[in-house]
DNA sequence: CCATGTTTTTCATCCATTGAAAGTTTGCAT
DNA sequence: ATGCAAACTTTCAATGGATGAAAAACATGG
């Protein structure tokens, strides 16, 4: 009937507001006092909900920093599925990396400052790092799979795995280094892209 | 004075025995009731120590399954450092993978059954998987670094990262698949080696 | 056997996470 | 409007991992 933005009821809007309040509160508190030092009770209080309610929005304390992971992965997979007809695997992967790197700078709902903060947090808190790697691994698996499907007969599972591993490996390490030396998003993005190009050149042999 | 094996006092021997008892108990309980379902209290009880004591041997519940991670990494790094004078980076990495894969079958202190069990546990419990990936990442970083040093002037940081990423990426995915379909250690090892060879052939271009 | 340094146990506490029951709010149909 | 049903939130209680501190048990060297 109505345009979808107005169609959602109060319920939905409230939920969005609460989710947002929780993310914001968490990010701010983490920045102020550190991740470990911030309790869920504090986050919940800052967002004006009960502690228990936090868990109906996020499955864990870590999750509040990864709430958009699913969405991001879908975007990447879609990109692979819609490859250009003449695009080589290596080029496609580079475009993919570009997408990842670019997009990290233009979050829908986070400011640049928040994005950087989140990155720094994830990089510096081991359990968060572990979680990020877990998500990345999952993404790699799915990408490799998608890549096989996108190039049927041309790219075996192992080739795909190697290609994805090489590119993400290079980018991961390069970006990591850039982030931890406190580089700007622009620099990080540049470094990552150079790494991708470099790794890709080694992959051209895959066709 | 005496040969080192007899030199260690009762204290040291007891500590080894307790550590071992904890690992064994944990492994057995995890196998019987599952990881999440097993409490530290149960593990400690099975090893005849207090719960608190568990934490003077391992930093966390997860750690009891990764107690030898440090040692393994050192072995790999040593291997890179002692590369043959005419060995190419790709060949060296393949030898490395071989080492990893082989050795997983011949643990110093775990039986084959225990090794398989541990693998299955790590693969099937998300937090353990995350932890394993974290450790792997650390290893990758250090390997890339070591690789650069082993081939000064010949391999830049990004090349090294790409090479390590490609090989470990391929092996990781292949081994993962093999493990989760319940393959034997021999099969896993074979799969991993084929993956490594495949990825390496793509890397020869690095020299 | 004693003095000493270690390790283990006890005890107390914090916090993340989860289940269940009770209380509110929203959406919808009459 | 009114009121019912579904969806959410709060409250309450409990579990289990992790950590600090002080007391108790133990090993070592003299």
From TrEMBL, chains A, B:
Signal peptide: none annotated. One of its GO terms (molecular function) is DNA-binding transcription factor activity. It comes from the Bacteria. Residues 16-76 form the HTH tetR-type domain. Residues 39-58 bind DNA. Transmembrane segments: none annotated. Keywords: DNA-binding, Transcription, Transcription regulation. This is Transcriptional regulator, TetR family. It comes from Nonomuraea pusilla.
